[in-house]
Amino acid sequence: MKYYAGIGSRETPRDVLDQMKALAFDIASKESFILRSGGARGADTAFQSGAEATKTDDVAEIFRWQDAVEDYPSRVMAQQVINLLNSENGESLPALSAMRPRVAGLLARNMMIMAGKNVSLNVAFVVAWTPNGEMTGGTRYALKFAEMFGIPVYNYGVMTDGEIRRCIREVHGVDVNAEA
After folding, report:
1. DSSP states of the chain
2. N or C: the chain end with fewer CB closer than 10 Å?
């Protein structure tokens, strides 16, 4: 089975949330990719509700931060992403072990979204929204993971719904209809 990540800011604009929901519905209807997301309000729940609206089984894997607190491989990958952000972007993020359990769990959860439980299978692509397509907020950890592994990111912050759908159709072979 193939997976994609549907992620983004809790502050995603309403019109983009509607587009995300419609896109997730269209992808789930084709039964070609399973959504991975985090269940947070905003972008995550828009993707989840769109995929689940198909009433089809096995359309989504939703990871909560509590799922990731003890998942060692996800925590190791989260620390590697933190190290990269610190060295490449000049950030000064603390080590995962120094973070509050919920914060560490959220970062490890992002790795579970991107690579599955026990970091076993990467997503094929990411659909997200961040302001102006920037690596910001908690979403930046997942976007940095995608960059590390050459995973395509389609970001509503810099792309239209039609452009994203065209990329998914042409690059990943999912016949999602034109702009919703």
Report:
1. -EEEEE---TT--HHHHHHHHHHHHHHHHTTSEEEEE---TTHHHHHHHHHHTT--SS-EEE--HHHHTT-HHHHHHHHHHHHHHHHHH---PPPGGGS-HHHHHHHHHHHHHHHTTTT----SEEEE--GGG---TTHHHHHHHHHHHT--EEETTTS-HHHHHHHHHHHH-----S--
2. N
